[in-house]
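Q: How would the structure tokens look for this protein?
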Amino acid sequence: MYFYPKDDTPGCTAQACNLRDNYPLMLKEGFEVLGVSVDDAKAHQKFIKKYELPFSLLADTDHAVVEAYGVWVEKSMYGKTYMGTARTTFVIDEQGVIQEIISKIDTKNHAEQVLG
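A: Here is the predicted structure in token form.
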């Protein structure tokens, strides 16, 4: 399950497309992919359609999931602070146990990071 800041932005698009391009290999290796952001379902559907994403995106508009996983954090840009999603991936096994947390995301090679 990967958390990302916003649909259709450069880094998030690179990450989603890298996962898309490697999706068959990820499935073969026993992984399923689920993306999570605080964007709404309409934004997710547009993003999925535009980039032909083969996996689901969860619309966490009430921030329940990002807060539960501790990825709704204070961020700063251009001297302004704001709350946002920390780009983070959780590798979770079949029993729901977190096996790995990847917090230094290489958006263009993220599937390789997950597959290890």
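The first strand starts at residue 2 and ends at 3.

DSSP finds five helices and seven strands in the chain.

Upvote if useful.
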